[in-house]
Amino acid sequence: TRLRAFSAVKSAPEVALCMESYFGTNVDILGWDFALTDNRDTWRYRVFANRAGLMPSLPTIVMLSGPAQLQIGFELEQHGQAVLGMVDHNPLRRRIPDSLEHPNPAELPPAVQYFLCKGSEITPPCNNYKYNGTPCEEVGEILGRANWHPGWRDAMLRGYVYSLFLAEVLDQTLDELIGEVGMTKENSLLARFIREESADSSAFLRSPPLYDEAGMANFGEDLYPILLRGNALCHSMRQPSQARCEGLVDGIEGMSKTLGKCENRDHYTFETLPETARRALLPTLHDSLNPHNKSFSIGDSVEADWEMRGKYYEGEVIASTSGEVTVKYFDDESVETLDVRFVRLSQQITLNSTLTTGGESLAPHIKAPWMVASDNDWRHSCNVTVAHDFADSFVVRYSDGWMGDIYPNERLKKAYDNEMERRGLVVMCERAYTHMPDMAVLLESIGFDQIGGPTVTIIVDDQVVTGIRTLQKGGKIRQGWGDCVVLVHGDTNSTNFGTGTKNGRHRQYEILFRVNEVGKMLDFTSVIVM
Questions:
Q1: Do the Cβ atoms of 63 and 32 come closer than 8 Å?
Q2: What is the pLDDT of residues 168-204, one digit of tens each?
Q3: Residue 189 and residue 176: Cα distance in Å, rounded?
Q4: CB of 210 within 8 A of CB of 46?
Q5: Cβ atoms within 10 A of the Cβ of 203, count?
């Protein structure tokens, strides 16, 4: 059993596309308890279920809630998947003693003691017993203790029901094993199960994806099949995560791997991030980032900080001295003379493959995005677990210049990749904007031309990102929950960045990031290539 639950997170796109990274590949039973966040967005469950069917172990999906998703379970079973679900557990709840009617509620077992008062958890005094007491004084008031939430006793009730069902299935299996004494290995129960599971898996892979109108409207006919069944590999900072637990993201294995939990070592917090990440290992990169001893020639394409307001505009050098550069801007043909420190070579020149070291990858010569821990006080102030899920993130700041990496890295590729070719999709996800720093740039603004040019520049295998496609109907991100976007490039806003073969790589992409506005930062939880 692995504790891999998320709080206030939707089941798709990010969780579904990062399934192997979060849950691992050897999963037999996969819980789905996203009714609160998914609500009636059944397309999210369809994505989740389709991605689960691609896992090598073809796990059984156990639905812990979600009446709107129940009907889809019958469709899944026709395609070879196994689904269990109990939508209404109120008949069981009605059998629990009412603490207001019991002569001495303190004598009841802890699991039902002050569980229900007049049939409800929110009726006094039961509302004061839904949550554990403050686990430690250092944290003070624990957030998220909503009045409407049924509390830990209701979760325990549902857990017991499913556990008893699984125990009954195990008991029946043991009875069958006892009855097969003397059978040959080829005719054994295990051999039969393997044959049946293989047949179910083949049936699923041959079946068409479970489309619906909402999913088609959100993703589009071109992306929907890829997002449901494409070869996704996720590079994510979110916790809990099996990939982070095994050290596949950063090379550092998690600690305290007990009772299904895995604590990951922190990298940085926003308070401990180094001042800058710039590294001048390439001559042209050095010229564009180092503020001293720069020289420009007439005709150079540059980016200049117009009136030193922190926004860079593209232009052409028309005069240059040892300490100043005169730039003619492309947009309005105005002319300005600036201190050399506020002018840099344009991204097209800096990142031209002919200017890198012999055409080799640029990413190894610059720093990878910072790995930043969130909610750091909660992790270390208590001697008991207050929360186990954290929206840790990758961060690129203005002061960092260019940052980048290869996605997926070799560890993730070795652990989770298969032989399916990629379709060139690059997906980025962010946490809920309410949990992001004020200076963070939302993903929906990537590539769009603000005053002075895009706030963030992203380059995938030498192709400059020109914008994004949201995975929401109408093209708007539903702010508050966090979500994912698909990067696009070129005049046609293509989502295909190739098959990931640059510089001899195999299904891997070099992705570079730069924030162009002073005081701003890019904050994202996952990069998914498909």
A1: yes
A2: 988 888 887 777 666 666 667 778 888 888 999 999 9
A3: 8
A4: yes
A5: 15
